[in-house]
Amino acid sequence: MPISPPFNRLPARALLPSAAVMGIVLILIARLHPASRALVETSMGAGLLAYAGVVVVLLVAARNARLDWNRLLGPTLPHTEWPLAAVAFPLAALSYAGFWLLWVPLSLIAPGFVQSYALDTMPELLSRGNPARLFLDVVVIVIVAPVVEEILFRGILLHRWAARWGTTAGVIVSSALFAIGHVELIGHFVFGVALAALYVRTRSLWVPIAAHVVNNAFAISFAIPDALRGVPEIAPSIEEFREEWPAAVLFLVLGATVLWWLWRRYGPRGAWTLPYASEAQPAAAVVRPGAEPIDATFGEAP
Question: What is the pLDDT of residue 34?
Fold first, then answer.
């Protein structure tokens, strides 16, 4: 299948390794200077430089490919569209349930791996007793990560793979890669698909970014008071984690029910066509309750 510009000049097999290498280079450079060495001693400080590497590579590649950023990001929307970012709440519930559903069965096979990889890493997200570092953590988690990840996964990679293999494959592969980059796989895959649908629905990447911001802010909000007081967060044991099944089931039911309702009421209708696929589709031509489906005569059906 021929790939239309600019995405024929934005191959993932070059972008992703280049972004990883650039992030590593920036982290190594920071380690050479005493003034910046403390930055990379925290996971979020190193993460900030890793995201900076992604940004540098994307900016250079997009310029060489003559990517139209306004067309990729889409317009800012009227205030009536922004409440759709509330999809973050059922997605957060599904992420918690998915985390439990994934790691509890694995804990029966490899409890040591689950304890060290999945459970012990959770308390390391926020710095303790250091307001300056905590502020940096919050900025990276709530602002930097959503903006960079949405541009990379829902913007560049989704369009690239949809142009190459079709919209369905583009949504699945970009969502799967997004999930692999996080500890929790099931909920983050659903998260990626839902935000791709939100992008198609609104024709604007700003709404998925807003939903991502809300999700991340909600996820860390409960831990911030203890982090400010310097109270260490203790990772649960395997036994304690397994005993959380009532909460996992509750969040699974609630999250799935609310997400299904939102999908039925606000989800895209007709063929899924990505915003960069057509210059003719106006930003306002989205499905509203009781309105006709969008005229998806361009692009590919999933």
Answer: 81
Please report the pLDDT score of residue 3 as a whole number. 55
pLDDT < 50 regions, the chain: 1, 280-302
| Residue 245: partners with Cβ closer than 8 Å, 6 or more residues away | 100, 104
The pLDDT value recorded for residue 154 is 94
Torsion of CA 79, 80, 82, 85, to 10 degrees: 160
How much is the pLDDT for 278?
58
Cis peptide upstream of residue 2 (ω within 30 degrees of 0): no
Three-state SS letters, the chain: CCCCCCHHHCCHHHHHHHHHHHHHHHHHHHHHCHHHHCHHHCHHHHHHHHHHHHHHHHHHHHHHHCCCHHHHHCCCCCCCCHHHHHHHHHHHHHHHHHHHHHHHHHHHHCHHHHHHHHHCCHHHHCCCCCHHHHHHHHHHHHHHHHHHHHHHHHHHHHHHHHHHHCHHHHHHHHHHHHHHCCCCCHHHHHHHHHHHHHHHHHCCCHHHHHHHHHHHHHHHHCCHHHHHHCCCCCCCCHHHHHCCHHHHHHHHHHHHHHHHHHHHHHCCCCCCCCHHHCCCCCCCCCCCCCCCCCCCCCCCCC
d(C-alpha 281, C-alpha 298), whole Å: 9
